[in-house]
Structures are given as C-alpha cells and as structure tokens.
Amino acid sequence: MYKKKKERFYISELLEDPAVTYPSYYMLSASMAKNEMLHTAIIALHSFDFSWFETPKNFDDIFSMFDSGTFPLYKEKYIVGYFGNKMMFLESSGWKGMPATADLFKLENWLVC
Known about the structure:
Strand order of the largest sheet: 6-5-4-3-7
Helix content: 10-25%
Order of helices and strands: EEHHHEEEEE
Number of strands: 7
Number of helices: 3
Radius of gyration: 14 Å
C-alpha cells in the first residue's frame, strides 16, 4: 500500500514573529501544506488573532465549516478537520483522531468563522 509522503511545514513560512511558537512545524501532506484555508487557521492560532472567529451558536456551525473546507479551532489550541468521517486535530506530528470527551460537546470550547 502506498503511503503519502509528509513534509515539515514550518510556521515561520507563514508568520515572521508568531505569538505561539510551539509547535514550530506541522507534518503535512503536500496537498495540505498548500491548503490556504489551513494556512488561515494556522495563522490565527499562532498569532492569537481570533478576530474572525466566534463561539458557535450550535453544532451546525461547526459542521458547516467542515463542509466548506475550513477549519474550526478547539480550545484556542487545536485546528480541527473532518476527514473520512473522522474528526481530527492537528499537532506537530500530523493529524490525530480526536477523542470524544465531555469537553468536546461544550460549544464554548469551539471557535468558528
């Protein structure tokens, strides 16, 4: 089975002086590294500029972001994507499955735009 090659995508490629420096890079596929919607979420997360984001009114707001190809933020710490019917969060080593905890179902933990 062919496994897609991942590459390091450094935050310094998007931001000159990030407010949040960890992680300094994300392991992403070539197509994800070129995704401008993901770039926007990374910039917001690492610059701590959430002016375009708001707390969702209901879960439909979160899933409409997934449907449009954009990425909501969780607890102002994680970028969340929806791939292959799985909700996943981005950490430095790549996309990881998101555990279904009680905090996941609290709307105040989410930011959408």
